[in-house]
Design goal:
heterodimer, A: 330 residues, alpha+beta, D-amino Acid Aminotransferase, Chain A, domain 1, Dna Ligase, domain 1, 7-stranded antiparallel sheet, 4-stranded antiparallel sheet, 10 helices, 14 strands, disordered C terminus, B: 6-stranded antiparallel sheet, 17 helices, 10 strands, 47% helix, 22% strand
């Protein structure tokens, strides 16, 4: 009966408070997310614009290109910027994102050191506009924004890519958080199913709770060997406040917020997701059900700060990771 | 947010559905299970012709009791026409007449036939030999040589006919036969040669019965009177095989014309057919209650539409299976209802042929689509190119299959081409974005779903119930609504979330 050992009973999942796809779709997304509001989060440019009007920090917008004849203006837009990111407004899964971290009068350099000319960048922008990277190939808009200077204290926990922090916000309350660390296996992408390490984060303190790669527990980063137990997200309270304020900003009741830490400007909102996945339960080793139920019982109207305090008080947990003296062998 | 209206709707659908089903069972004595009664074929003939603005007489052959089939009831629909049935030693005929008709005219005749393996034809005397008109040169020598060749290799009338057929249409076809075939069509020629050799024979018209077929035509067959056994033998004029296939209905068995129209042109006749099972008693009652105004079921439609509905009514079953597999099991498919369409194609092609065909088309399509992605085309143009590619693949496979003698390969054309093109497009994008593993998961999931849907839709019991009990559709609707309300775990999630329920890590 070996194959049975990979399966569990529904009752055990229910005891753990795990939420399945069907429940998420009907009880949370269907009930709390108004279809009309989806374009706000599916289009990164719209997200950025309303974030600016609501005072939510996002990487600064340098400019946009909306038409093929506007592609020629990209040189003028990029002038005087040392580093920038070009991305499609409706891209998904990190496709079509071009990062330039150094530029002089003629040449642009990617973080890998590869040299690009202005023509290369124009071609990339043109591809974005024609829908090469957007869902279903629909015409898109290219967004140019400033480069984020990543928080150095976290760089040891990631391989190539950028660690981002996902917080699920339910009716304005942050309920669960995780950090996604890219690995060699995930090819520098922060996608869990491609092999990135997911780290559950304690809501109260920002400490790592537990690490998971390919759905199995892990204690250190597979490439850098950095011990996950020592991982603490800096400026945790600011980050939660940022996440909580996205509720007022979008009106979506069940929301995934993706953030990064800039070492000068602190937490910044990268993008929002109206259909956040369920893998966050795996990285936390805990189901969302109890936390969501508790929040559904709240009738009192609270400000974002009060909601963050509520979440930090009720959702605090002890780390399951044991601090090791030094890097351990994986 | 009350769920009460939802449960009211579901309850209402269930009650009405069950009541309709029960009513049909009790009122019309339609059994729950197929197979415990006799099989009945309903065959509808549609005669079409263009009238020449004047009096018209249409003479149409009708089937009689014969080996394997018994005529139960028959109906005609032909408003404004006078109608008379006639029967003589050559068979039964219907005679429609009208004083004034113009434009395209349609006459319907439908017959219910009971499959009765023990049924025997009424004994009929063989016809007198037709006086043979003499051949012109050089056909006379050719005819004599063909007859002599077959005669020498045969022992009696039946074997003579077999040899003659082989010489005329089979592999042994010689120069003489080819010469004669320039003057006559093969069945007519064989009959003429048989008569010349003083063997009593005639050409008859038969209909191959296949469930749910529409717009079928008659095929010609050969009857030879065997002096030794005092009975008629039936031959397939194309192959020389003797004996009547079980599903062959002899529509015209007297050697007469099937359809004769006076005062019209462009006349033709097409057939639609359908089989179902019912008790012989109910068959008679159905006939009696046919004309009541209250008979609002699909079964009061013309046969051609009924045959169409037989498939349409199966689609909800396919949809239910898909909902079940996605909501309760959690199987990923590429395109939500693509598996249902593939399963419909499987019904036409049979399972194994369908699976092989599907895999071949998608695999070749993926390779070609892979090249198209280098060309960097816009989406609509790219999918259109894939559609043309799919059509090309299907044509090539059909030709290859035909050359290799695999007639099953020809059914590949039943696949929905646009759906296949989109499947290829989606799989290809999936391959680029998520890698071949995800393609295998989703492709395998779709194919598995399609096979399960096929097994459900092709089940004789399911076909019987969906076609005969329309109330079942409402029950299916209620079930699908209920499944849409399910918030529990999917089967595959029990596996996905298993690691959480393992006890604390670090052990």
């Amino acid at each position: 009966m070996n194959w049975l050992s990979n399966w569990t009973w529904p009752t055990r999942l229910r005891d753990k408070g795990i939420i399945g796809m069907n429940r998420r779709n009907i009880r949370y997304i269907g009930r709390y997310n108004n279809r009309r509001l989806y374009p706000l989060v599916d289009d990164k440019l719209q997200t950025k614009l309303i974030a600016q009007t609501h005072g939510v920090t996002t990487p600064a917008l340098i400019g946009t290109v909306t038409t093929q004849f506007g592609v020629k203006r990209i040189g003028a837009i990029l002038k005087k910027h040392q580093g920038f990111v070009v991305k499609p407004a409706k891209g998904s899964g990190g496709k079509g994102i071009l990062v330039v971290d150094n530029a002089n009068a003629d040449d642009f350099f990617k973080p890998s050191g590869e040299r690009l000319t202005l023509t290369d960048i124009e071609r990339h922008v043109s591809n974005i506009l024609s829908g090469l990277y957007s869902l279903g190939g629909s015409p898109d808009v290219a967004v140019v924004e400033t480069l984020i200077n990543f928080e150095e204290s976290l760089m040891a926990y990631t391989y190539e890519g950028v660690p981002d922090i996902r917080v699920i916000v339910f009716q304005g309350y942050p309920v669960m958080a995780m950090m996604r660390l890219s690995t060699a296996a995930s090819d520098g992408k922060a996608n869990l199913h491609q092999g990135a390490v997911g780290v559950g984060i304690d809501m109260a303190s920002g400490h790592a709770l537990r690490g998971v790669q390919f759905d199995r527990p892990c204690h250190c980063h597979p490439d850098t060997q950095q011990d996950l137990a020592s991982l603490v997200v800096p400026q945790w309270d600011t980050l939660l406040n940022l996440a909580a304020s996205c509720y007022e900003m979008t009106g979506l009741g069940y929301l995934g917020t993706d953030m990064v830490l800039d070492h000068e400007d602190g937490p910044m909102l990268l993008e929002l997701n109206a259909r956040p996945g369920l893998a966050i339960q795996m990285t936390n080793g805990e189901g969302l059900r109890r936390r969501l139920d508790l929040i559904e019982q709240q009738t009192e109207k609270r400000s974002p700060e009060e909601r963050v305090a509520f979440a930090q008080h009720h959702f605090a947990r002890q780390s399951e990771l044991v601090e090791h003296p030094g890097p351990v062998d994986a | 947010m009350s769920r009460l209206p939802f449960y009211l709707i579901v309850g209402f659908l269930l009650i009405v559905g069950i009541a309709m089903t029960a009513h049909r069972h009790l009122q019309f004595e339609i059994p729950w299970l197929p197979g415990e009664q006799r099989q009945v074929w309903e065959v509808e003939a549609m005669v079409t012709y263009n009238a020449n603005d004047g009096p018209v007489a249409v003479d149409f052959a009708l089937p009689s009791h014969q080996q394997g089939f018994r005529v139960l009831t028959e109906n005609t629909a032909s408003s404004g026409y006078g109608l008379a049935y006639q029967a003589d030693e050559y068979g039964r005929r219907a005679n429609w007449t009208v004083r004034e008709a113009s434009g395209e005219q349609q006459l319907y005749y439908s017959v219910q036939l009971l499959v009765a393996p023990k049924s025997q034809p009424e004994v009929k005397t063989p016809p007198e030999l037709a006086s043979t008109t003499p051949w012109e040169r050089p056909y006379d020598t050719a005819a004599n040589q063909v007859i002599e060749r077959a005669w020498s290799r045969s022992a009696n009338n039946a074997t003579f006919a077999r040899e003659l057929i082989r010489d005329i249409t089979g592999e042994q076809q010689g120069e003489n036969a080819r010469l004669l075939l320039t003057q006559f069509d093969s069945t007519e020629l064989i009959v003429r040669l048989l008569h010349q050799a003083e063997v009593k024979a005639r050409a008859v018209s038969g209909l191959v019965l296949k469930d749910g077929r529409r717009r079928q035509t008659l095929s010609s067959w050969l009857q030879v009177f065997s002096q030794d056994d005092e009975q008629w033998w039936l031959f397939n004029p194309a192959t020389g095989e003797r004996g009547k296939p079980d599903n062959l209905l002899l529509w015209e068995a007297g050697g007469q014309a099937v359809l004769e129209v006076q005062g019209g042109s462009d006349s033709r006749v097409t057939f639609s057919m359908l089989t179902h099972s019912q008790p012989a008693a109910a068959a008679v009652r159905n006939h009696l209650s046919d004309d009541t105004l209250m008979n609002f079921s699909i079964h009061s439609l013309p046969l051609e539409e009924q045959a169409l509905f037989q498939t349409i009514l199966l689609i909800p079953i396919g949809a239910l299976v898909v909902v079940f597999l996605r909501v309760l099991v959690g199987i990923k498919t590429s395109g939500t209802f693509m598996p249902v369409l593939i399963a419909l194609a499987f019904i036409q092609t049979s399972l194994v042929t369908g699976l092989v065909g599907f895999l071949l088309i998608v695999a070749v399509g993926l390779v070609i689509r892979n090249y198209l992605s280098y060309l960097n085309l816009l989406l609509v143009a790219r999918v259109s190119a894939v559609i043309i590619t799919v059509i090309a693949i299907i044509s090539i496979f059909s030709v290859i299959a035909f050359r290799l003698g695999l007639n099953a390969g020809l059914t590949i054309t039943f696949f929905p081409m646009i759906i296949l093109a989109w499947t290829i497009e989606r799989m290809s994008i999936l391959w680029e974005e998520e890698g071949p593993k995800e393609v295998l998961i989703q492709g395998g999931g779709s194919l598995m779903t399609a096979v399960v849907v096929y097994l459900a839709m092709n089940n004789p019991m399911v076909r019987h119930i969906t076609f005969n009990f329309l109330g079942v559709q409402l029950i299916l609707m209620a079930l699908i609504l209920l499944l849409g309300n399910y918030t529990g775990y999917r089967l595959l999630e029990l596996r996905r979330f298993k690691p959480i329920t393992d006890d604390e890590p670090g052990v």
